[in-house]
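Residues determine shape. We examine one folded chain.
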Amino acid sequence: NGFNPTQMLIALPKLGLPMLLFYVPYKLVNFEVGLLVLALSGVLGIVFRNFFLSNIESLYQKGKYKTIAAFAEKN
């Protein structure tokens, strides 16, 4: 009952993107560059975390009010 295919689809980019970020520079240059690109993406994620979260929150808030309005119109 705990498995949901939608959750699996959401998790795939979380698994695939880091592998892609490592694999492409690794094949084009070398192992160390692959690790460097992966590490830099992590550092950038930490630095811009608040920026991304605030944008996601504003998108959620807009969608939330549209959803509430759609339910209010049907009833």
Notes: Residues 22 and 38 are 6 Å apart (CA to CA).
